Amino acid sequence: MNASDPQAAPKPLKDFLPEPPRSSRTVREPARDIPVIAETDVAVLGGGPAGVCAAVAAARAGARVVIVERNAYFGGVACAADVNIFHQFWSPDFETKIIGGLPEEALRRLEQMKAVRNSRPDGRGYFAVCTESLKLALDDMVLGSGAKIILHGWLAHAAREGRRIDAALVETKSGRGAVLARVFVDCTGDADLCARAEAPTVTGDAEGLCQPPSLCFRIGGVDFKKAQAAGVTEKVIQAELFKGTMDYNQGKYPTFLWGAVSVWRPDEIMLAGTRVVGVNCARGDDFTRAEIEARFQMRWVLDKLRHFAGYENLHLVDIGAEIGVRETRRIAGEHQVQEQELLEGVRFPDTIAQGSYPVDLHNPHGPGIRFRYLDGTERAVAGDGAQTTGRWDGQRADAPKRRTPCYCVPFRALVPKALDNVLVAGRCLSASHEAAGALRVMINAMSFGHAAGRAAATAAARHEGQVRRVNVVELRQQLKNDGVPLLDLA
Fold it and tell me: Which helix (H) or strand (E) holds 59?
C-alpha cells in the first residue's frame, strides 16, 4: 500500500476478522432484573417492509402494538441496502391483480410524493422507488396507525416459557429492556426471535449454503445515451468484468449484474454490482466479512466501469448502509412451501398472500443465476452473461406457455411449529431453499406482514395469543376487506 495515496487500498485484502480464541473460555453474565419498557398486545420485531405492514395491520385492527427496529428508520433492506425495486402487483400476463392492501398503500403514498416510477405505461410493471422517500411514507403509515415505536433497538434474547415467548429482550441506548406481549411477530428477516427462543430453524440449501448477499450502490454522472449508442449494456459489462480476476482476491467476478435508474435523475443508477459467496449473514463474523469484502469488490467494479463508453465520468453517490441479504435462517413451520407448489400455482385453503415474482436462485458457490417463471419457462445466466433458456415443466420449447396467474402462500407457513404465540413475516417464513428464492422479495414480504398483523391482532384479542386458533376463513375475508385481491380457492 502506498502510504502517500489516501485512496489506495490494501490488495490483496488481508484477513481482518479477530483471531478465534484458543480455548473455550466463557464469561458469566451476572443475573439481573430487566426493566419492562413496554407491555402490549402485539410486539413486532423488525421494521422492514414486512414489519411495518404487520404493525400497521395489527394496530388498525384495534390491537395495542409496539414495533422494534434496529435502524433509525423503517424500511429494512429497501432503505438500508438501497434496494429500490418493488415487483409487480399483477399476474405474468398483466391481466389479473394479485397483490393489494398495505403494499399498494405504500406505493400510493410514494406516488403522491412523485417518488416512484413504473416500468409500464399502464402501471402494471415493476416499481423503481426513491428509498429515502420510502422512509417518510413508512413513518406516516406506522404513526398514523397508532403503533408505538422503538428505534435503535436490537433484539438480544427471548424469554420463553414452554411453547410461549413471554418477553423480547431488547438493547437500546438506555440498556436492556423487556417487551411483553400476548403475540410476537418475528420480522427480523433472519428469524432472530425464533432462534433466540431456540425454536427450530433451517438455513440455506441442503448443504446449509445461502444465496449470496449483494451490496448495492448508486453512481451518478452516467451518459446513458452514449452508452446505448456504443452498445454498452449490463450484459456487456458483466461479460467484460468476468474476463479477468478481481484485484482484492484474484477471484472471478461472481455477480449477476443488474440495476435500476433513479426516479429523480436520468444520469444516476442503483447497481446491484457485488456478490459475496460462502457467507451466512445470520453469523456475526460472516456478516462482517460480507460487508468489507463487498466494498472492496465495489471498488474494483467502479474502476472497471470507468473504461466503458458513457461511464467515464461516473461518481459514487452512495453505498448501501448494509449489504442486501437474500437468505439466512427460515423457521420450521406448520407447512414448508415448496418450489413446485409455487410454480404450479397450488391454491391452499388457508392462502393469505399471492405473488408472481419468479423463483430466483443466485448460485451459492459462485457465478451464475437461475430463474423459473410461472409460465413454464426457465432461464440460466452464466458468469459471463451467457444465457440458456428452456422449460421447467418438461414441455417443448415451442409449447404454449402456462397461464398460472400467481402462486399462493398458506397461513401455516407463518406459524412456527414449536411456538404458540408467534408468527413470522418476511423472508424467514417456512419455505424450502428454492421456494424462498421467489418469496423473499419485498412486495411478498409486505403481503405476509399484512396477514400476520391481522392474525396477531385477532389472536391477542380473542384467543389469549394462540395463533393457531385464528379462523382463517375470517382472516381471508378481513384481508379482502383491506383490499387484498385473494383469488377464489377453486
Answer: helix 49-60
Per-residue buried b or exposed e for 399-408, using 16+ beta carbons within 10 Å of the residue's own CB: eeebebbbbb
* Buried b or exposed e, range 91-125, using 16+ CB within 10 angstroms: bbeeebbbbbbbbbbbbebbbeeebbbbeeeeebb
Q: Which of 59, 70, 92 is nearest to 321 (CA)?
A: 70
What is the per-residue pLDDT for 22? 82
Contact 268, 393 (CB under 8 A): no
Q: What is the pLDDT of residues 354-380, one digit of tens each?
A: 999 999 999 999 999 999 999 999 999
Domains in the chain and their CATH numbers?
36-207+408-481 (3.50.50.60), 217-319 (no CATH)
Between CA 72 and CA 67 the distance in angstroms is: 13
Which triple of cell numbers denotes residue 318? 452512495
DSSP string for residues in 278-322 = S--TTSHHHHHHHHHHHHHHHHHHHHHHTTSTT-TT-EEEEE-SS
* C-alpha cell recorded at residue 191: 428469524
3-state secondary structure 345-414: CCCCCCEEEEECCCEEEECCCCCCEEEECCCCEEEEECCCCCEEEEECCCCCCCCCCCCCCCEEEEHHHH
pLDDT digits (tens, 9 = 90+) for 409-429: 999 999 999 999 999 999 999
Residue 142 near residue 136, CB atoms below 8 Å? no
Other residues' Cβ atoms within 10 Å of the Cβ of residue 207: 10
SS3 448: helix
Instruction: Round to the nearest angstrom and report the end-to-end CA distance of the chain.
Output: 66
The residue with cell 410486539 is 43
pTM here is: 0.96
CA dihedral 187, 119, 123, 142 (to 10 degrees): 30
Contacts of 37 (CB under 8 A, 6+ apart): 150, 170, 172, 174, 177, 178, 179
Cell 424450502: give the residue. 432
User: Reduced to 3 states, what is the DSSP secondary structure of residue 240?
Assistant: helix
pLDDT exceeds 70 at position 299:
yes
